[in-house]
Design brief:
The protein is 37% helix and 26% strand. It is built from 14 helices and 18 strands. The chain starts with a strand and ends in a 5-residue tail after the last strand. Strands 7, 8, 9, 10, 11, 12, 13, 14, 15, 16, 17 and 18 form a 12-stranded mixed β-sheet that branches. It has a 6-stranded parallel β-sheet with strand order 3-2-1-4-5-6, with helices on both faces. The chain has 3 domains: 2-128 and 300-328, Rossmann fold (3-Layer(aba) Sandwich), CATH 3.40.50; 135-296, Dihydrodipicolinate Reductase, domain 2 (2-Layer Sandwich), CATH 3.30.360; 344-426, Alpha-Beta Plaits, CATH 3.30.70.260.
Length: 431
Amino acid sequence: MIKIGLCGLGTVGRSFVEHIDESYNLIKNKIGTDFEIVAIADRSIKNKKYKSSIKTTEDPMSLVDIDDLDVIVELIGNVDLSYDLLKQLIINKKHVITANKALIAKHGEELFKLASKNEVFIGFEASVAGAIPIIQALSSNFSNEKITSIVGIINGTSNFILHKMSDTNCDLQSALNEAQELGYAEADPSFDINGMDAAHKIAILAALAFSIKPPLNETNVEGIESITAMDISYARELGYIIKHVGITEISDGLVHASVHPVLVANNNIFSQVSNEMNAIVLTGERFGQTMLYGHGAGGNATASAVVSDLVSAINHITYSKSSYSQMVETVGQKKYKIKSLDNIKSQYYLRIFADDVPGVMAEITNKLAEKAISIEAVTQHEATDANSPIPIVIITNSVENLLIKNVIRDIEKMKNIRDKVSSIRILSNDK
């Protein structure tokens, strides 16, 4: 009998318990052994429903002292508490599972080494992309392949918001309100909107793919807070849709990691990833490209990944050391340098508000020409009234980020330019 402890009975925790109850026989038949949840820790446990046979406590740290627990599932969310809890559990040779992407991004290297030293399983499939088995894929399916890049829509909340803005012409706040009503966004959605949630995830994927320390502090982070209905409309007019992606890649011995909005061409597969769905494209030296697709937000999707980790943990206990565990041992072994965003090349969408006066377009194009930046497309719209500036939208050729920053600075200094220039990278179709 495998005995399980659960920390956190919130949305994901409840979904996890329901999944175990509903799929018990199916899981048991696959793993060949009995298992049950015997202890739950939750700070508001008195107000929640659970089986009467389960031991309960309001103190998650108290699970450390229960000797006969085999696996502890951590679904608290708090980074500091989760770190202290998992560290002590691992030292006590308890197998652990977590959905906490911030914890893994910040402390993963240390926890992985500690787990290896104590020969315990540490599962974190649920920390990245919900129900998509990306961690398992990297540890097993593609363990014989040299990964060169990972590109993905990895935050279901931001994808839902951008899809709704595009589909209904609403503003960001309205789309966010709907995401919260449906349970796709937290009461405090800051990490989803500002890109930090996706940054934690891409840092984890970079660490696993390239055997480096999670590059969270070196990851360029941009959220969706500046995306307007106007940008979405202009992008659509030019044959694009706006998405928020995470990218990590290696070339010439340098690793790059970033999360940011992009314009995606209508014929790009990412343009079809709607609502709360996630999609990740992996590129390898031999197999080329493959795509993983699935639900990226919601309690059920995350709980499904947690149960997957539970099966892996039980197999680890029952049979042998898993490929999953072998993979995490490589994290931090290689010391690749991080490639600066300034040196990353991309096409750019530029939105400029300018006074409706003769010569302003020529002056803008001259600023671009001075930096050897060519224009692939340009559109100019009418002002909303006589006193309003005119919006000018430009699609550039592929240029380094530093160069586009410099030309934007020069354009913003022009006397007939109103407001800041909005810039969004364009995702190449070969990504």
